[in-house]
Amino acid sequence: MSTSPQEKIANLTKELNHHSYLYYQENKSEISDFEFDQKLKQLEELEAAYPEFKLEDSPTHRVGGTITKNFNTVYHKSRMLSLGNTYSKDDLIEFDKRVMKGLGTEDYEYFCELKFDGVAISLLYEQGVLSQAVTRGDGEKGDEVTSNVKTIRTIPLRLNGDYPETFEVRGEVFMPKKVFKALNEERAKNGEALLANPRNTASGTLKMQDSSVVASRKLDCYLYSLLGDAITTSTHEESIHLLERMNFNVSPTYARCKSLEEVFEYINTWEQKRHELPVETDGIVIKVNSTAHQEELGFTAKTPRWAISYKYKSEAAETRLNNITYQVGRTGAITPVAELEPVLLAGTTVKRASLHNANEIERLDIRIGDYVFVEKGGEIIPKITGVNHDRRAADSKETIYQNSCPECGTPLVRKEGEANHYCPNADGCPPQVMGRVEHFISRNAMDIAHLGPKTIEGLFQTGKISGIADLYSLTFEDLNGLKFEDKDELTGEVKIRSIKDKSAQNIVESLEASKQIPFESVLFGLGIRYVGRTVAEKLAEHFKTIDNLRNASMEEVIAVHEIGERIAESVVNFFSIPENIELIERLKAAGLQMRMEETQTPEYQTQIFQGKTVVVSGVFESFEREELKKLIKSLGGKVSSSISGSTDFLIAGANMGPAKLEKAQNLGTQILSEKEFSEMINQ
Ligand SMILES: NC(=O)c1ccc[n+]([C@@H]2O[C@H](COP(=O)([O-])OP(=O)(O)OC[C@H]3O[C@@H](n4cnc5c(N)ncnc54)[C@H](O)[C@@H]3O)[C@@H](O)[C@H]2O)c1
Ligand SMILES: [Zn+2]
């Protein structure tokens, strides 16, 4: 079925707007920059051929970013634009022709810089003092993030020597590759989700509300443009040198190019060398050097006509697939991994790449012994994009997906409609047992901050623990000096780690401290299937002690407000397994909290919500949501998660879903704002 140009335009517009939203608002990418740029180009071509179908919200006539509500909105003195981009040298020849035609002379020069992959920023200096920092936003106006930008050490807060009275500098805020790597290592250690790339991280960091967190993230900034009435430089190069003299951080990677040939040389020089720079780069920027020429060429709605960026295509290599291995995740999910003949790509040796799941193997029709294409762009993680079928051996065999768990031998299962295979042996499969320990120590459970997943793995490896309960028998002597192997899942690289003095001490102390963690957290930490944080709180509140819960019948568990059959069955089942009972007895003996503490509410004497059902929704200024729920309970109320006929009050915070609000209005539920709620409890 073919789609009409009109539909194609509509679809591309929608798709690109979706990716732009993710990219600029949520700092996420679902497709590569290359794919995005190709689609944008396709849309541009379609719109040029069928201008009547061009949509109002087309991404082709707007600068991509947006502003947020969290910061002051500030208008730029002159718009902050995007750059035209290309991946082809032929397009640069076209660009050069346009410049020549526009200027009516062959007498011009270019100035080349690297294209730093970060977030554009505008800095305003008044009387030599940094007075304002604003993001590009939608090009006309952006977010004022001055206090966050002030944490960047290479940005001068006050200038010395000579400087114009007021002027603006523009540049790129970025996260150095090294800082990014360390941050991700730290996150891996704490069992937190890994960040995708330095650009998205820099962009997310710049828009954080807490400047002290921003400071800890060690952002940096390169400046590459100088503006203002008082700026009288006649070339871009002079501006760059002036910035250097004023002590701004300018990357020394620029070059003046007298011809397009020299530009090509610059491109070739940096294609590999750029990987050695401290910052991620995704291409180069070519600017007409003379200010007068720039003015003559002017701007389109979205980009300057005197500059263009040439982006390096993500690099590809061809290599042999030596084997497919299978990894078992903490949840039992199986990931097939391509074991490759090592190949050099974008400055690093690639040996492995994820094949995601059986569908992907089928899609690629990839077989052991095949020569495959591997790509790596600015992204950190390599990807297999295809198979070179011309080089396939005549006797190659179709890949048959592994049918039993590589860790414990249990037959794998794949649920209807799911992409991944699973190992169902949750209690006996080593990575899954490790996963349970990791869950137990996680922040919302026992919050044992000094133990990370890597250390847990090491403790299993060295036989120091074989499950949760063993944690509490660990001594300083067990831990101090302990050495273990740490294997990078992607590269297969093995490092030796060791626990030293201070960390051993910290682990022992944080385990000791966790004995004070309240019962509901312990219950949550046990990892009973379907018992999330909220359910754990409800059960703890209702049954008060682990023994009551353990002895409860299915009916008694279902009787708890908002607990359904599925959860009840899982709970009863958990307590019917002897190993689990033994675990609980050992944890009890270790001194963990196995009963609710009586809550006291001295500040609020009255039980104003006695017998009332309350729903809390949205974000609150003076309360954490969990804290608010606790408070309501301490005032006699029942907290429920969905609105129904029996809801008495809805406490509506900011940003709550309109559907919920409407439902409450229709049901005639009494709706309280945060202010009204505060007044009510403080009466
Ligand atoms: N993967 C996705 O889903 C997705 C979605 C939206 C956008 N994108 C990517 O973002 C790009 C569009 O972003 P854009 O409009 O910001 O354009 P751009 O990032 O391609 O180019 C403009 C920006 O380059 C930066 N820059 C870096 N070094 C520079 C230098 N030396 N001189 C001047 N500027 C320099 C500036 O911040 C400037 O704002 C797309 O081309 C695409 O690659 C990707
Ligand atoms: Zn298994």
Which structural category do the helix and sheet elements fall into? alpha+beta
Which ligands are bound?
Answer: nicotinamide-adenine-dinucleotide, zinc ion
Shape: globular
Could you say what the CATH architecture of the largest domain is? Answer: 2-Layer Sandwich
Radius of gyration: 30 Å
CATH class of the largest domain: Alpha Beta
Q: Which ranges are low-confidence, i.e. pLDDT below 50, for 5 or more consecutive residues? A: none
What spatial order of strands do you see in the largest sheet? 2-11-10-3-9
Notes on the structure:
The chain is α+β, with helices and mostly antiparallel strands. The protein is built from 24 helices and 22 strands. The strands form six sheets. A five-stranded mixed beta sheet has the order 2-11-10-3-9. It has a five-stranded antiparallel beta sheet with strand order 14-13-12-15-16, with no helix packed on it. Strands 5-4-7-8 form a four-stranded antiparallel beta sheet. The relative contact order is 0.06. The site of zinc ion (ZN) has 8 residues, from loops.
Summarize the structure.
The chain has 683 residues and is of the alpha+beta class.
